[in-house]
Automatic annotation (TrEMBL), chains A, B:
Segments passing through the bilayer: none
Name this polypeptide is given: LacI family transcriptional regulator
UniProt entry keywords in alphabetical sequence: DNA-binding, Transcription, Transcription regulation
Domain HTH lacI-type residue range list: 6-60
Molecular-function GO term, any one: transcription cis-regulatory region binding
PROSITE patterns: HTH_LACI_2
InterPro entries, per the entry: HTH_LacI, LacI/GalR-like_sensor, Lambda_DNA-bd_dom_sf, Peripla_BP_I
Domain of life where this protein originates: Bacteria
SUPFAM superfamilies reported for this sequence: lambda repressor-like DNA-binding domains, Periplasmic binding protein-like I
Gene3D superfamilies registered for this protein in UniProt: 3.40.50.2300, lambda repressor-like DNA-binding domains
Length: 349, 349
DNA sequence: GGTTCAAGCTATACCGGTTTAGGTGTTGGG
DNA sequence: CCCAACACCTAAACCGGTATAGCTTGAACC
């Protein structure tokens, strides 16, 4: 029953030409007369021929796949709503191209580098996305060494040899701070992300800048690993402060939700006693109570554009970096006027 | 600078043997004397030779990759905490094997089937995971037709030709119901998942069964698509009821969190007025207020075992199905004694 | 009318492995 | 002493494409 998949030789024989010519016709190369090309493509269609991926890979040294290496501990991976959406965006750009996405989830830096080496050495992918950029990121050197095309997610500071696709998140943080300031808050804290990750660091420094611009003290900052657990701990520490903040800007939604939980557990009313902002605009953030004021970007779009950029880079050897629309503040119910008494929560205005 | 990667021919020449013999030595085939085998492997090591994946793929028709096709609309994908964790588990079993994971996210059924066909036709993967089993699932026929080995996640009812890896979640739902009953609840509702998905349907029918066993009315069920938005809507409908439930069992955590938000927005106290249980034991569920009583499984373990089973199936042509430890109830703060008045929270009987 | 040239096409090497048929050399049995 | 059997190894075909060198053919040109 299992009839063999037709090969290029079958097509060539049926069309009465050499297999080289079939290859030319398939790849739109010159040297084939229009009629012959048409006939070959017809025959190919009739036979249901699809060129073998392995054979093409072997002779062209191309895998027709892109790689995404995510470095997250298994316990934490689910907390990050970014990747599934990003991947969905990547896919939407890939399927039309007949390319596939090879995904790796690795626990630590060593495995991460080894994975890039294996992907490149096995010629498993034609290019990779570089996520979670870090300061002094070793991966730039390794990728350059491997000659593996890559597109960075976010702007790799101090490098202009790699195209990137960036969402300006500084603007979002700044507008959150401005929003809170306009509501009368002056003690505003920031539960930051991992300072070793560029986007964590960038959000932090834009918080810093926005606070200074408003003439406020930007020193109430706690670093985290972006996990809900860290977000809860940071919130406790901030609220234990003798002079606690009236507003907290979180570097992502899960931490903000965890912070909200901590505040509520302590009997604080949000936003009457404490205002809270998240980051990412995850689905769930609109359904907690009170609905989270958050900073939304569009990770699906991000993935789509990043994929297109990477394909462009692989195809033509270079690609323009892209700056996506900045993350914008989505004001919902978790932010409100600062308590008139900027001190503890029992007060009224 | 870019020195060519050594090929099997280089190894053969350096070791002074034919390349066929190198292949034998590499693959532990008989017909190579122990000393020669040792020498060949030494030379291979010295040269840093790694057999070309494309070449092997071409001659063995093996891709050394597994496929995972996820059918989710882009808007919803982030809401599901299952996949990232599952994938992390799969990866942990794959890396040791030098295999890769090819991931596809597709929006609808048509694209889903097309993707399986492409993966098989391109010989892109050696086998696939079958997730989100549905009633009358067309994929079984397609996969059989394609001859693509597959492992099902969850027990495909009425099929014994495909190995599966299952977590008994009926037990979890049942214990949630029992827990609520023991707290004195009698009007218990279920915000179910997609009834077309087997795990949605199964959770629903085990809810049904557990309720009947307790002598309670199991008719308070609302179907959803597992999204937070659906969870919120379902909760509103349930609470708008003239005789609303005192406890709601949700089919996943995001919906439970959304339901919690709705309840709080209406001024209901959880768990004093309304008890809530989730499903999945996501990270964030422990940090909302009140912390969610939920049913935990171990998706990372699930992924690991599923990957091993699929590898076994591909390698030996058959594999034993695996039953993982049942999902278990994690009692936290969102469940409590039923209000003495079983009617509306302001009312008296 | 012969040469030049380009278009269109074929033949074949090649990518880097696996696999099969066959060839050697040594040993052991009759 | 001859042949069979076996262990070890080589040569070459093969997987299914791509790429290159070279062959035909006909038209253009002088």
């Amino acid at each position: 029953m299992a009839i063999r998949k037709p090969t290029i030789t079958d097509v060539a024989r049926t069309a009465g030409v050499s297999k080289g010519l079939v290859s030319f016709a398939l790849n739109d190369k010159p040297g084939v007369s229009p009629e012959t090309r048409k006939r070959i493509l017809e025959v190919a269609g009739d036979l249901g021929w699809r060129p073998s991926l392995s054979a093409r890979s072997l002779s062209t040294r191309t895998s027709f796949a892109l790689g995404l290496v995510i470095r997250r501990k298994a316990e934490v991976i689910s907390a990050d709503p970014f990747f599934p959406a990003f991947i969905a965006g990547v896919e939407s750009a890939l399927t039309e191209e007949g390319r596939a996405l090879v995904l790796s989830v690795v626990p630590d830096a060593e495995a991460e580098l080894r994975t890039y080496r294996t992907l490149a050495g096995d010629n498993r992918v034609d290019g990779v996305f570089l996520t979670d950029l870090r300061e002094n990121d070793e991966r730039f050197a390794v990728l350059a060494d491997l000659g593996l095309p890559a597109v960075a997610l976010g702007h790799p500071t101090g490098r202009d040899d790699m195209p990137f696709v960036q969402v300006d998140d500084t603007h979002g943080i700044a507008s959150a701070v401005e929003h809170l300031v306009s509501l009368g808050h002056s003690r505003i804290a920031h539960v930051a992300g991992d300072p070793m990750m560029m986007h964590g660091g960038r959000r932090r420094s834009s918080f810093d800048e926005a606070m200074r611009e408003a003439g406020l003290d930007p020193s109430l900052v706690i670093d985290t690993d972006f996990s809900a657990s860290n977000g809860a701990d940071a919130t406790k520490r901030l609220l234990d402060n003798s002079h606690p903040p009236t507003a907290i800007v979180y570097a992502n939604d899960p931490m903000a939700i965890a912070g909200l939980g901590v505040a509520q557990q302590r009997g604080l009313r949000v936003p009457a006693d404490l205002s809270i902002t998240g980051f990412d605009g995850t689905d769930i953030s609109g359904y907690v109570f009170p609905a989270l004021t958050t900073i939304t970007s569009d990770p699906v779009e991000w993935g789509m554009v990043a994929a297109r950029t990477l394909l462009e880079l692989i195809g033509s050897g270079s690609a323009e970096s892209v700056e996506l629309p900045p993350a914008s503040l989505l004001i919902r119910a978790s932010t409100g006027p600062a308590p008139s008494d900027s001190g503890h929560h029992a007060a009224h205005r």
